[in-house]
Structures are given as C-alpha cells and as structure tokens.
Amino acid sequence: xxxxxxxxxxxxxxxxxxxxxxxxxxxxxxxxxxxxxxxxxxxxxxxxxxxxxxxxxxxxxxxxxxxxxxxxxxxxxxxxxxxxxxxxxxxxxxxxxxxxxxxxxxxxxxxxxxxxxxxxxxxxxxxxxxxxxxxxxxxxxxxxxxxxxxxxxxxxxxxxxxxxxxxxxxxxxxxxxxxxxxxxxxxxxxxxxxxxxxxxxxxxxxxxxxxxxxxxxxxxxxxxxxxxxxxxxxxxxxxxxxxxxxxxxxxxxxxxxxxxxxxxxxxxxxxxxxxxxxxxxxxxxxxxxxxxxxxxxxxxxxxxxxxxxxxxxxxxxxxxxxxxxxxxxxxxxxxxxxxxxxxxxxxxxxxxxx
Amino acid sequence: xxxxxxxxxxxxxxxxxxxxxxxxxxxxxxxxxxxxxxxxxxxxxxxxxxxxxxxxxxxxxxxxxxxxxxxxxxxxxxxxxxxxxxxxxxxxxxxxxxxxxxxxxxxxxxxxxxxxxxxxxxxxxxxxxxxxxxxxxxxxxxxxxxxxxxxxxxxxxxxxxxxxxxxxxxxxxxxxxxxxxxxxxxxxxxxxxxxxxxxxxxxxxxxxxxxxxxxxxxxxxxxxxxxxxxxxxxxxxxxxxxxxx
Lengths: 354, 245
Known about the structure:
Number of domains of chain A: 2
Largest sheet of chain A: 2 strands, antiparallel
Radius of gyration of chain B: 24 Å
Structural class of chain A: mainly alpha
Helix content of chain A: 25-40%
Shape of chain B: globular
Order of helices and strands of chain A: HHHHHHHHEHEHHH
CATH topology of the largest domain in chain A: Cytochrome Bc1 Complex, Chain D, domain 2
Strand content of chain A: under 5%
Distance between the termini of chain B: 65 Å
Distance between the termini of chain A: 62 Å
Oligomer: heterodimer
Structural class of chain B: alpha+beta
Largest sheet of chain B: 8 strands, antiparallel
Number of strands of chain B: 15
Number of helices of chain A: 12
Number of domains of chain B: 1
C-alpha cells in the first residue's frame, strides 16, 4: 500500500510540472537568501546538549537581529519599553526591581526571571506556561502590562517602517517580509546565545584557581544535606528545571504552577531559577520578596512555612537547617563564586544601540 | 521532450521494481512487544500521593505519607523461551511524570516470560554526568553530588531512588545512592511469568521500612551520607518488587 502511494504521488508530481525539473521553483521572497551563518556554542562538559528547535536554528545573523529586537523599545506600543527593560545584563538578565514596569508605568505581578542559560530549558516562566522560548517571546508583545500592543499588525508595521529591520530580517531569514513568527524566532535565538559558564566556580572545577577555606566549606554545605541546596539547584546549570514549593507561604496569593496544570499538588510551586550570577539578580523569589542573599539563606535556615504542597526537600519546615552564622557566611561565599564577570560584561549581550 | 519522457518512464520503472522489492508491511505475527506498567503500592493499594493525603503505617509503627517516588532500573534483561536480550537503556520512573509510568519495548524475538533488573546503577555505570542528555529530565532529577574531592562521601553519579513524604509532621527523604562511593544498587534475580506482551512491575513501598526495621525517627530526614541507613535500605530492598501479568 505504501509503495503504491509513492508511485501515485510520483506520477502526480511529474504531470504537474511543465518541465521535468526536480521541483517547481517560485521565489516569494523579495530579498536574496543570505545563507545565514550557523552559530556554534561552547559550554562545559557538565552542561547538557542545548535544546534548539529544528525550525529555528541559531545563526549569527538571527542572534544579531534578536539582540536588536531585545533592546529596541520599538516593540512596545509607545516606544518606551523593551525586553531589556525587565531583563538587564547588569542584573544577570533579571531586574533589580521587585516587579518590573511596563508601558505607562503598569506594574507586573511577578519578578522578572533571569533568562541565563535558557537554551538548556524546556519550560519557561516561573510557572512553566511557555513550552519554548519562541512561545515565551510571543506573550509580552500583547500583554497589557508589558509591551501593551493591541495586535501584531501594529508591531510589524513599525518594524517594516524602520530603517534597519528590513535588512536585518533579510540577513537573518532571507526575507524582508517581516512577520510575528520571525520576530519571536529572532528574539529566541538571541536568548539562546545568553550562556554563562565561566564563573569562579567553573574555574575552580577546572583547576584554574583555588577556593578559600570559606568557599570550600560553603560548597560542602551547598552540595550536601547540611544546606541541601543541590537538590533543586544541582551543580552544572544550578537549576533542576523543576517546580517546587519552597515554603514561602502557608496561604498562596499566587498559585504558580497550578495555574498551568490544574493539579492541586502544584499549588504554590514555581520553577527553580539558576543560581548562576545570583549575586546580581536580586531581589529573589518569584515575587522578589527577599532583597539580599542573607535573607534568602535565613529563609531556608529557618525552615520556611508549612503548607499542603510544601516540597519534602524542604526537610526542616518550621525547624530550619540550624546553620551557624559562620556556616551561613560560608554558604554565601560559595554562592558568590557563581558570578561570571566575563558574562556580565560580554559585549555580545549588550545594547547594540549604545 | 521525448528524451525527458523516456527518462521519466525509466524512473517510474525503477520505482516499480523498488516497490516490488520492498519488504511487505510488517506482519504483526513476526514481531513482539512488551508493555511494562509500574505500580507503587502499600498493602496492595495504589499509593495516593500527597504530603497529607493518606498516612501509611510501617512495621515500626511510624505513619508516613508519600509525596513522590523516583527511581532508575538498569541492567534490564528480558527472557524468552530460548534466549535473552539485554536492554541498552535504563528505565527512569517518576511518579510526578505519568509518561514514565509505562515503558514499551518493541521488536522482540518472542513473547517475554521473564525479566531481571537492577535498582540504580552499578558502580561501573554510575558515572558522573554520564546521563546528562537522558530524557524526562533524568539528570537534573537524579544527580548525586560530586564535591570535587572536598568531601569523599559524595563522588558524583546518580541517586538510585528518591522516596519522599512526611512522617509525623516531619519530612523524610529516603534517598539511596552510592554513599561514600560504596555501591548499594540492588540486582534482582529473574522474575518469571507467563509469557505475555504486558506486565506490571509493582513496588511494595512499605517493604523499604520492614525486615530489618527502619526507624525514620532514628535516621531523620536526610540519609545521603548515612551508611547505616543505606545498608538497612539495601537489605530491605530485596523484596520490594513483584512482577505479574
């Protein structure tokens, strides 16, 4: 049967062409295909293979276009807000505000999550409602408290009218027929390029530098059940990409993962963020309630608050880890080794309009 | 034009010959499969997951709930009438991920009538970062810390099992793995069954805490560097599984 179908379609194929060419070419693009240059990433051996969709391979031109779009307020309805308004390089691509501001000063209801090493994730946003970076990039464009556009047409019109974007789209995708899909594809490509892997911790693992005694003790607290940070933030990416209730509240104002799954066991669960560059991504948690790392450590050291869905990995709810002051200092010392100065100052990730 | 028609004709003839030479659509009688369903029970009843939903009673008399259970089966060997076949892949079960609760194996040489496996990885296979790219987020969910020589109790690899929940008002994390670099994985002998294409592998969770008795109050919430706790769990683990068709 399968063979018969192959035969049938072959006959149809031949009969549909005026000439017996391998295919019937009809160019629909108005610019030359620029053969965008594939981009290869380097990362340590303790990182997994990146998750890049087949339909959107990462290229140098695509990343360049995405970087422009990421930093350009042209994507907002009043030309005031961009992706980078909430995801700032100097703050580890998070925001230093508890809640970020959108168009007209509208305030969001969750802290802007860092987008570092998103290339290794498969679920995005604090509650995992986006299944790809492309899917995620769609959301803020029409969100009324973020970029506040009424529809995609007005966004596309602004891009088509600009002096730079038709050429950048042509370079990246071989078309100047700009559409929403290519906009989010480019942004996703840029976000996939935002990789941090050269912290002092990485250098120590590679034998390039020595840790202090405090940092070594902090690492031992982190990566054993003394501090038990590693279960949700395993060494490598420093996130397990899983959703947890880490005992922030007894009663939930934000149901988190439950809003996506409807599973009662998911009430109050949020995705573990990476701890890479945690020094710079304050304030912390999905609602930005903690302003310092000391407050975060104190939260875990006191055990957090009980609730029906608190994660069993929060072993000592109501009791706490009972770390001494010295241990808390050492744990923080270790967390600071996850800062990646090269990444934070990497001009490839900075604002291309400056 | 005539030349093009001739080339097309030749091409079609070649395609017809290819089709004649094609193997026929696979005959279901020539291929067997095995579907494995994983069940997790206490006293014969499927566990109701949640911190506070149901409290089960272990032999020590400690009531406990089960929030989640994750484990890995490796060295899986299937047995047939005249031969056996080792699987290349390990099987990861995560009760939070329904996709992992069924495992299907295709293209078997016959009806399967036995299975053996190991809970966890043997030392030879429990290698740091070896399974970084395995599906279902296995690596992140099961990685065992490697403290880079600063703490010899933790030398990397993967958990064998994570069984978590609450006892009394305290959380327990029954995490088994290569504690102090010692191998506590459990190799099970062959489970024989009536030849079938569908089996259930059942874990009786209560048996983790019986014979010898495991006292949650004594061992506390975290046991990843507690050799004594790991030894008792290793001993108890010998009878946790049953297989039925």
